[in-house]
Amino acid sequence: MPGQVGSLLLKNYLMGAELRKRVTLDNSTHRKGEAAAIGMGTTLGIYASAAVEYFATRGLDPRETEAREGQLIMQQIKRLGDRVFRFMQEQERGLLTGMLQEMLRTRITLDRVLRMNEILVSNLNSRLETLSDAQLKQQQEALKLLRGRNEEAIEKQTADVLAAVQKQGPGRQAKPEAGTASK
């Protein structure tokens, strides 16, 4: 019989079957393990393999109950901290995008208003004294039209810049376009 078992093991090994190793347990541990395995609807071998896999993959020492619980709690705290940090980053991105949008709108508006004022002051100074009342009214209408166009241009520029910033993503630097020099 012992010769048959040896040849059967060799045959299983050569055919690619998984070899099993034996582990010696004290009687009390064996009874507890067997009862737990039956309670889970599995065999003691599968239950023990799963337990070893659990401790080995987590780097835990099953002999140290208090240390193991502390390690598990620390791992859970770290995962929770990581989740909270990711949540805070998302909230900041949302808040900062709104603030950036308003800052850009203000900056673009200021630049356009300054340019428009330079043009208007120059033109008004040269023509103001030579215009009749009808001509003054016509100039006022043209100014209203110019203001409307200016507001549309401000909104478009703000949307374009914001779209570019959101595409680029927070915390990343823009790649310089081919053929352009950085300032």
Oligomeric description of these chains: single chain
Q: Would you identify the regions where 5 or more consecutive residues have pLDDT less than 50? A: 1-17
Helix content: over 70%
- The arrangement of helices and strands along the chain is HHHHH
Q: What global shape is seen?
A: rod-shaped
Sheet having the most strands: none
In total, the number of strands is 0
- What is the radius of gyration? 38 Å
- From the N-terminal CA to the C-terminal CA, the straight-line distance is 87 Å
**Total individual domains:** 2
- Helical segment count: 5
* Mean pLDDT value: 78
Strand content: under 5%
- Content-based structural category: mainly alpha
Please describe what this structure looks like.
With about 180 residues, the protein is mainly alpha-helical. The protein has helices at about 1-15, 25-40, 45-60, 65-125, 135-170. The protein folds into 2 domains: about 5-60; about 95-170. The protein contains 5 helices and no strands. The relative contact order is 0.04.
